[in-house]
């Protein structure tokens, strides 16, 4: 009765203000008597377990004549309800609890006083539809695993490049040492010639040295030939 009395006891100044605000006075009064249902679009939220939950809510509102001038419109109601749904679903441990108790969203959102500063009074919030979306948690884990894989591959490639560089350095070092050996071997004949000229080495000693070298070379050739023959020796054929 009090609400009906407030409707009919509407001063001319308030009606004029409503009209100047660009609102239809007749529609405003009718909405204050007959509530209007505002349906939200699909609102997407993610529970703590990483599952996306999509919700459609129907908000029953009634025009508040006292706040109709300067009060926020339906867009604000939809935005606030959407924010409340996202907060409620986001604080749920599992998406299953949201599916089992969709009225929990209604009670939680309705208790937030979302009609504050708006031109409406929210009478009820009903969940019209609930659907399951993507597994956001699993998708993020897959992306993280892919990123870790790429990082591991990059590090492996870096290690391979380092190993190749070290191998090339070692080959260069081997060639450098071989060059030093060749250089040292080239100095042996000159040293022997100096020894012969200075009398520190006799002719017979030089011949003995030559014989030792020839004998060593012959043994080395025999050893290489025997080893090659063993490695390439064909297996015996089966005798019939």
If you had to describe this structure to a student in words, what would you say it looks like?
This protein has helices at 2-8, 12-20, 25-33, 74-90, 95-100, 103-110, 136-198, 203-231; strands at 36-39, 43-46, 51-63, 120-135. Helix 4 packs across helix 6. The chain is α+β, with helices and mostly antiparallel strands. It has eight helices and four strands; from the N terminus they run αααβββαααβαα. Mean pLDDT is 77; it is low at 1-9. It starts with a helix and ends in a 9-residue tail after the last helix. It is rod-shaped, with a radius of gyration of 48 Å.
Relevant terms:
240 residues; alpha+beta; four-stranded antiparallel sheet; 8 helices; disordered N terminus
